[in-house]
Automatic annotation (TrEMBL):
Any single Gene Ontology cellular-component annotation: membrane
Gene Ontology terms for molecular function: phosphatidylinositol bisphosphate binding
Stored Pfam families: CRAL_TRIO
SMART domains: CRAL_TRIO_N
CDD domains registered for this protein in UniProt: SEC14
Residues covered by the CRAL-TRIO domain: 110-274
InterPro entries named in the record: CRAL-TRIO_dom, CRAL-TRIO_dom_sf, CRAL/TRIO_N_dom, CRAL/TRIO_N_dom_sf
Protein name in UniProt: CRAL-TRIO domain-containing protein
Length: 329
């Protein structure tokens, strides 16, 4: 059964009436502490939404953009209600979508390539959250067929996941944890990965992802794939690098996360197919809203810090050769 699609939000930068509809996070026992960490209360939300909307309305280069509360709170919560940091992330998010259409355009679960990657279990959200309410995802990166797909397809699947859960209030507040299972990575995958590609991905992760990255775990990493993991680490900023870990297997990973959240095949409760089914249903329900994001627009032909040229400059806070290297014992 196909879930009912959600209505498409307004993309006018100055709508007649702003959409203030949004939910308050609830559920985890730690939610109060999480909101305190975010410096969030009703007054702060109203004030910062007004500031961000006024900033969008007066922005000389933003042409079309969502201004509804559900969308803007992604950026405010990711940056703990710092208006300056949230506005910069929104600029870079819009710029990244323009610079990398092969990553962000047509995030459609019915697209043959995305549907195939979803069917093989390349990436999917886990059905349950951790004790703090963090969104959990598992990526079996080696299932990316190097004869058919490139890193662009991997990035597009990750963008699909992020956007499908972008309006999830608990994910906005508590953040996300991603597990990368590398056991199927083979020598052929090296042909689709390069340091320049990893640098581009890290630039986006460092500067333009509107979600709180709580942890990145790599598991089952073969010796031949360590350079991919460490190469990516070299470009990530220090804050995110310090939240990365490597585990030899799922037994070792279980020391860092609640194993019951994982698919049954890895020691959890429900089979992988159930997690994949729930993920596809989520993507289907938010399909029209994700496709509408393609109509947002920012002009990059200028010399502002988030311009076409600046977005391709060196990444702040990360460089090859200067990072905490992960090794297998």
């Amino acid at each position: 059964m196909t879930p009912n699609p959600l209505p498409i939000p307004c993309l006018e930068k100055v709508p007649e009436v702003y959409d203030d509809d949004h939910e308050q996070p609830e559920g985890p026992a730690t939610i109060g502490k999480t909101l305190e960490t975010l410096r969030e209360d009703g007054s702060t939300v109203r004030q910062n939404l007004a500031l961000l909307r006024d900033w969008i309305a007066k922005h000389p280069h933003i042409r079309r953009c969502r201004t509804d509360a559900r969308f803007l709170l992604r950026f405010l919560r990711a940056k703990k209600h710092s208006f300056l940091a949230a506005s910069q992330t929104l600029e870079r998010y819009l710029a990244a979508r323009t610079l990398h259409p092969s990553w962000f355009q047509r995030l459609d679960i019915r697209d043959p390539e995305l549907a195939d990657l979803a069917d093989v279990g390349f990436l999917y959200a886990l059905k349950e959250r951790d004790a703090d309410g963090c969104l959990m995802a598992l990526c079996d990166w080696g299932l990316l067929d190097p004869k058919r797909y490139t890193v662009d397809h991997s990035n597009r699947m990750h963008a699909l996941w992020l956007e499908a859960y972008g309006e999830d209030v608990l994910a906005q507040c508590a953040g996300a944890v991603v597990i990368f299972d590398m056991r199927h990575v083979q020598l052929a995958h090296h042909s689709v990965v390069s340091l320049s590609v990893l640098r581009q991905v890290a630039h986006y992760v460092n500067n333009a992802v509107p979600i709180r990255c709580k942890a990145l775990h790599a598991v089952n990493v073969p010796a031949g794939a360590l350079w991919i993991v460490n190469g990516m680490l070299g470009f990530l900023n220090e804050k995110i690098r310090n939240r990365c870990s490597l585990s030899r297997d799922y037994d070792e990973l279980a020391e860092k996360i609640d194993r019951s959240l994982l698919p049954k095949e890895h020691g959890g409760k429900e089979p992988k197919t159930e997690h994949m089914r729930a993920f596809r249903e989520r993507c289907e329900r938010y399909r029209d809203r994700m496709l509408a994001l393609d109509e947002m627009e920012i002009d990059l032909d200028h010399n502002e810090p988030y311009s076409r040229h600046a977005m391709l400059d060196d990444i702040e806070g990360g460089a090859v050769g200067s990072f905490r290297k992960l090794e297998l014992d």
